[in-house]
């Protein structure tokens, strides 16, 4: 013991209190340990299925000004948005069916422009387009506004410009009244585009059986559909087709291991698989007539896999669960 220890009573007292405190803390810790199970015995945290999967459910449509939405819906089907008065957004994007209508897109900007020798690209569905990170097959547009304006200017379809459209609409007292009610002014470049895109943001198709399963409805899918989803993940399909739109959030080269299509862009924005069972034909050139054919070709070209009939059947069974609802009714395929 140090020589000065006995001459320092305050130091001896502090050390004694410290030891007593440590002993008391140890006793309390032992008591708590006796009452608390080890971490390995604790129940797992409550989590939804969606938290553990590469795909997430479609959210409900966003709240918007109902006057702007109604005006945008009217414009969506108004042929005055075209130069000749014979073409509307709904001419290619049929909201009564799959949001595409099974038609090839008119020739326009990019790889489908007139004079470059390429055929028009297959029309992509407008449903859930607002959930995509880019728009059109080549991802040439970052916003719905840019895409809508380009469609109006497309020489192969509407062949006009937004300012001209606004001037034309301003001669109609009825629709001008709608613009004043929604925007406080007559039709112009900005509010024509805003009305259209406000409506397009509401074109979501939630409530698919797969989304119900993600939300915790264990009975929403059959055993075969669940096995198809397991294959979808284990084969690597979900590496490109994931997220809320099951795709549409990255670019990919077509034909990694062997050719997929004969013409058109080599790199495309991965399309969404939402409502895919209703959007035949498939690929940007519409060359796959059935979902079964599309699955076989994708597996061979992108994954270097030759699928059995059973595997194709299971994958297609899963893909059919991705059909959602628009205004309370299931999305349906277009007439051949």
Summarize the helices and strands and which ones pair or pack:
Layout: H1 9-35, H2 66-76, H3 89-92, H4 144-153, H5 162-169, H6 173-183, H7 189-200, H8 209-214, H9 223-234, E1 251-253, E2 267-269, H10 291-303, H11 309-319, E3 325-326, E4 329-330
Antiparallel strand pairs: 1-2, 3-4
Helix pairs in contact: 2-7, 4-7, 9-11, 10-11
Give a description of the structure:
The chain is globular and about 60 Å long. The chain has 11 helices and 4 strands. Strand 3 and strand 4 form a beta hairpin. The chain is mainly α. It has helices at residues 9-35, 66-76, 89-92, 144-153, 162-169, 173-183, 189-200, 209-214, 223-234, 291-303, 309-319; strands at 251-253, 267-269, 325-326, 329-330. It folds into 2 domains: 49-58 and 206-330, Cytochrome c-like domain (Cytochrome Bc1 Complex, Chain D, domain 2); 66-200, Cytochrome c-like domain (Cytochrome Bc1 Complex, Chain D, domain 2, Orthogonal Bundle).
As for the number of domains, it is: 2
- Quote the CATH topology of the largest domain: Cytochrome Bc1 Complex, Chain D, domain 2
CATH class term of the largest domain: Mainly Alpha
Strand content: under 5%
What would CATH call the homologous superfamily of the largest domain? Answer: Cytochrome c-like domain
What strand line-up does the widest sheet have? 1-2
Low-confidence stretches: 1-47, 105-117
State the end-to-end distance: 99 Å
Order of helices and strands: HHHHHHHHHEEHHEE
Mean pLDDT: 85
The residue fraction in helices comes out at 25-40%
Question: How many helices in DSSP terms?
Answer: 11
Largest sheet: 2 strands, antiparallel
Which value, in Å, is the CA radius of gyration?
A: 30 Å
In the CATH classification, which architecture of the largest domain applies? Orthogonal Bundle
Q: What is the total tally of β strands? A: 4
Task: Find the structural class using helix and strand composition.
Answer: mainly alpha
Shape: globular
């Amino acid at each position: 013991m140090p020589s000065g220890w006995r001459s320092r009573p305050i130091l001896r007292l502090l050390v004694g209190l410290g030891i007593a405190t440590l002993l008391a803390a140890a006793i309390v810790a032992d008591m708590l340990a006796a009452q608390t199970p080890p971490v390995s015995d604790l129940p797992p945290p409550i989590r939804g299925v969606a938290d553990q999967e590469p795909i997430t459910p479609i959210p409900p449509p966003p709240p918007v000004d109902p006057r702007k939405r109604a005006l945008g819906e009217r414009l969506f089907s108004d042929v005055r948005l075209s130069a000749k008065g014979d073409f509307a957004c709904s001419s290619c994007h049929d909201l009564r069916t799959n949001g595409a209508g099974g038609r090839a897109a008119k020739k326009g900007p990019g790889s489908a422009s007139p004079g470059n020798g390429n055929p028009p690209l297959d029309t992509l569905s407008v449903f859930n387009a607002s959930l995509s990170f880019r728009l059109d097959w080549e991802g040439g547009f970052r916003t719905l506004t840019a895409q809508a304006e380009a469609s109006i200017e497309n020489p192969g379809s509407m062949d006009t410009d937004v300012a001209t459209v606004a001037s034309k609409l301003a001669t109609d007292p009825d629709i001008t009244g709608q613009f004043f009610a929604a925007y406080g002014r007559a039709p112009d470049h900005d509010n024509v585009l805003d009305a259209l895109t406000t409506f397009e943001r509401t074109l979501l198709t939630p409530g698919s059986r797969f989304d119900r399963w993600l939300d915790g409805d264990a009975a929403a899918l059959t055993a075969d559909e669940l096995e198809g989803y397991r294959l979808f993940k284990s084969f690597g399909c979900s590496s490109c087709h994931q997220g809320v739109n099951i795709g549409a959030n990255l670019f990919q080269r077509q034909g990694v291991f062997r050719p997929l299509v004969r013409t058109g862009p080599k790199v495309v924005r991965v399309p969404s698989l939402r409502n895919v069972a209703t959007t035949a034909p498939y690929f940007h050139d519409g060359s796959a007539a059935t979902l079964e054919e599309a699955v076989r070709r994708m597996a061979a070209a992108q994954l270097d896999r030759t699928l059995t009939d059973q595997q194709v059947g299971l994958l297609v069974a899963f893909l059919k669960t991705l059909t959602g609802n628009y205004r309370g009714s299931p999305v349906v395929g277009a007439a051949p």
